[in-house]
Amino acid sequence: MYWHFSIISVAFICYVLAKVTRNQFSEGKSIFWIMGGVLMLVLSLFPILFIKLSHLLGVVYPPSLLFLFGILFVVFVTFRQEEEISRLDERVKELAQQNAILGTELRTMRERAEAAEPHQSKHTGHVL
């Protein structure tokens, strides 16, 4: 048994859960990381499962399968982050356009208010 990997896995799961409870990480995104931590824990407790999986897939040297999974994991995470960045870019563009529209409306309203100021009544001080 690889007990040190088990400790690292449990520490990783606790770290993710602590981030979620402090609202520093969203619940939806944490599921992915918690599943990864649980998978690391299971494989560290039962390494024969990984060796059997390697043989089942026809991989002669099991650590090379681990590297393949690591590379696929990094590609998947990168793709998900790229999706999120694209979504946020679109949202920033929408907000900038809304801000520009509101700024134009505010300037128009101020100009109208300034143009109406000379027409105040001398007796009441109210705008006619």
How would you describe the overall organization of this protein?
Helices cover 80% and strands 0% of the residues. With 128 residues, it is an all-alpha fold. The protein has two domains: 45 residues; 57 residues. Helix 1 packs antiparallel against helix 2 and helix 2 packs across helix 3. The mean pLDDT is 89.
Q: What is the fold's blueprint, element by element?
A:
Blueprint lengths: L2 H19 L5 H19 L1 H10 L5 H55 L12
Helix pairs in contact: 1-2, 2-3
What's the short story on this structure?
With 128 residues, the chain is an all-alpha fold. Helices cover 80% and strands 0% of the residues. It is built from four helices and no strands.
Number of domains: 2
Provide mean pLDDT, rounded.
Answer: 89
Parts with pLDDT < 50 across at least 5 consecutive residues: none
- End-to-end gap: 87 Å
The SS-based structural class is mainly alpha
Count of separate DSSP helical elements: 4
Helix content: over 70%
Largest sheet: none
Q: Bin the strand percentage.
A: under 5%
Work out the radius of gyration.
29 Å
